[in-house]
User: What shape does this take?
Amino acid sequence: MQKLRSVLEDAGFDDVRTYLQSGNVVLSSKAAPVKVARECERLIADAFGLNIAVVVRTRAELAGVVKRNPLAKVAKDPKRYQVSFLEKKPSAALVRKLEEVAVAAERVVAVGREIYAWHPEGVARSKLWAQLAGKGLGVTATAHNWTTVTKLLKLADSG
Assistant: This one.
């Protein structure tokens, strides 16, 4: 993660911080989020030889995700509560598909470009999680448990 921070700092990004070994980065930039995403993808490809899609949220957008928390009443274990951050808003058909594969105890809520999913029995055998984690969404996405989402917001606030 130190090399990733260095690559981003050398490219002109400010306040570059990483969260654990997760690949999650918090940084400051005056550029539009889509430009930041494309530049980070290019830098990662050049420095590490990896073609990784990058999804960006502003600090305000991330704060909105945490504030909305539509499953707060049922999602009591932050490690089983996931938020998928999508590059663009999912189609109604995709949301219906996700709702159909969720088992009775699971919950899934799409709000804007995020999909909140509660997996009370864990993700190991969850068909919903398999859909969210796979390439079947048809859109660039990254998913994180609630602990990571809230830690990233705290990291953004500490810069």
